[in-house]
Amino acid sequence: MSAGEGAPARRASRLALILSLLLPVAALPSVAAAQDDVPVGESTNAVAQAIRGQVGGRLKDFYRARGYWPLWIVDDRPGPQAEALVGVIESVRVDGLNPDRYSPDRLRRLIDEGQDGNPRALAYLEVALSGALGNLVRDMREPTIEIEYLEESLKPKRLRPEEVLRRAALAKSMTDYVRNMGWMSPLYVQLRAALPTTAPDDDRDVPGSDVTVPRGPLLKPGMTGERVMLLRQRLGLADGDTYDAELRASVRRFQASRGLPVDGIAGAQTIAALNGEGGASEDRIAQLRLNLERARLLPDAYTRHIVVDAAAARLWYYGGGAEQGTMRVVAGTPETQTPMMAGLVRYATLNPYWNVPVDLVRKRIAPKVLAGTSLERQGYEALSDWTHDATVIPSASIDWQGVADGTVEPRVRELPGRGNSMGSVKFMFPNDHGIYLHDTPQKNLFAKADRHFSNGCVRLEDAPRLGRWLFDRPLKPDSSQPEQHVPVPEPVPVYLMYFTASPSETGRGVKYVADVYDRDSPALQHLASR
After folding, report:
1. Which of 97, 154, 162, 448 has the smallest number of Cβ neighbours within 10 A?
2. CA-CA distances (angstroms) from residue 171 to 45, 78, 302, 309, 479?
3. pLDDT (tens digit per residue) in 245-271
4. Do 160 and 58 form a contact (C-beta atoms < 8 A)?
5. Which residues of 129-148 are buried (b: 16+ CB within 10 A; e: fewer)?
């Protein structure tokens, strides 16, 4: 999505939310029909009436607001989103959760009972599925790692079931929303896909674990043959060569245990996992689990936000349910680390000054002044103090030998211009660390594999592009006047994170990077002690 498309999409999303809350009950079926999985028909009206008689508690408020129209029923039968939810539930050990808490076997039984279209059975299934989704999302979003929150509004809050369902109802496709776990960050979902729920050798004593299933075409229900026979043996089932319902259920359980897509079809991924190919080492599994917990802190992609990964020196921005852009960044050195924290980007500063850190004034600027190059010729000016009301002072009034010796610490700032270390713009989220996102003239650094060169701030590969996304228009100063502040129309959350395992730049698989800040070991110890 281009920056120009961002504002209309966000306005449409907000309008849909307002409509779902404010429209009269009689109008709501047509609103529900905008979701591609929701049907409209007389029989479904009977289901809505049955839901009205069965639903209670906090779910009742949600259903009352939408005329008791179902989320999970398609053409008077359980929709594919119902199967998708059960598939996700069966795999939640990878998330550190117990699937039994959400009763997948009971939900499957209710799905089967609803196949004849009985409105009361469908209503009972509808309420059960909505309750399960509410509990699942609340638990899956529960953080286990802490970061610094600069704004109270960003601190994680336990979601109420009606909030969970309202967001799900706004998705274009309920099935895709559930299957892709749209309530979680895409970073979380991508890391999760790489993480098995059990160690590679956990099933070494299971009957048939020494059987290898040859690679080949997809194996599906209804098929027969030697590979089907070996698949049955590998999963410890009775002899036979037919891909029957029992085999499909066993394949589903195996897929869920490995964090694979749960579809009951034995494709290349499933066969490779059954044969023990490509199993991750215990250290890699631990690293993946740690980074999954870090990703749990992030909002879903429907929330407009920015994520900075200081470990891999990358940035993503999200909105409208998807990633909308990514770029390389330069992050802090091991000595001047970029911290983990979350804030709100509230304004941009065009033609910015740069307040030079005291140690750099001592190491880089003072020796040049002492050698005869004035402060002004170097593109800097001195200020009276570090307050907001500081005034410019003559550089000759400063004891530069004292600065070089470390006994005098003046405030020096770099003037705006092409060579300014801030570039043309910086994006501000107020914090006591002096951290922000900014442009840079040192574009050569983005070609390096290791991009840890800053004093803690985040240098952007393409600051103008991020500016267009934030403001829905190109950012241009009104004049050459320094420090022109432009408020962001709607403050945008930014999460400074640290992922030593993250989705690869190609979008396939996981990329592992060095733990440059030495944070993984203490974080793993913290998780182990919980």
Report:
1. 448
2. 22, 18, 9, 28, 43
3. 999 988 987 876 565 677 899 998 899
4. yes
5. bbbbbbbbbbbbbeeeeebe
